[in-house]
Amino acid sequence: MSQRRQLPMPRPRELLTNSSHFFAFGFGSGFAPKAPGTVGTLVAIPVYWLIADWSLPLYALWLVVTFALGVYWCERSSKALGLHDHPGIVWDEMVGYWLTMLLAPPGWQWMLAGFVLFRLFDIAKPWPVSLADRKIHGGLGIMIDDILAAVYAWLAMQLLAYFFVG
């Protein structure tokens, strides 16, 4: 039996009756048997597609609200499961992707580039992402390392856009 199968998981019914699990597990994408963080990031793409044309203030508000709610939902879900930063908790990846895409040029190529860059930095965890991952706990700890990884990915996206678009 794999280690993933031994982890405490919310029952599928709980996903529909517990809003913290529903959102923390990325609308169910965190149940993916392999690479749930990658699957959660993929689920963030259609949401991004829906909000990509929002004004900068509205998009920034979206990021602040989804981050704050993520701290709350991820904290509650991880406490209910008795495991800090459960691999199935993927809301942090979703918000990280949306941050990566802030001010990105339009087009599927840029959505793909944002996906690749965010996953790269989220998996590699360069300093201070790795430090935050180890030292900050609770819902804030679950969210902040992905936000820091997204800052790296956002900077890379902006550099790419500068050289290839502008």
Strand residue content: under 5%
The helix-and-strand class reads: mainly alpha
* Number of DSSP strand runs: 0
The whole-number mean of residue pLDDT values reads: 93
Radius of gyration (Å): 15 Å
What is the chains' assembly state?
A: single chain
Low-confidence stretches: none
Query: What's the helix count?
Result: 9
Helix percent band: over 70%
**Distance between the ends:** 51 Å
Largest sheet: none
EC number: 3.1.3.27
Keywords: Cell inner membrane, Cell membrane, Hydrolase, Lipid degradation, Lipid metabolism, Magnesium, Membrane, Metal-binding, Phospholipid degradation, Phospholipid metabolism, Transmembrane, Transmembrane helix
Subcellular location: Cell inner membrane
Function: Lipid phosphatase which dephosphorylates phosphatidylglycerophosphate (PGP) to phosphatidylglycerol (PG).
Chain-wise SSE layout:
Blueprint: H1 3-6, H2 12-17, H3 19-24, H4 36-51, H5 56-81, H6 91-100, H7 108-124, H8 129-135, H9 138-164
Helix pairs in contact: 4-6, 5-6, 5-9, 6-7, 6-9, 7-9, 8-9
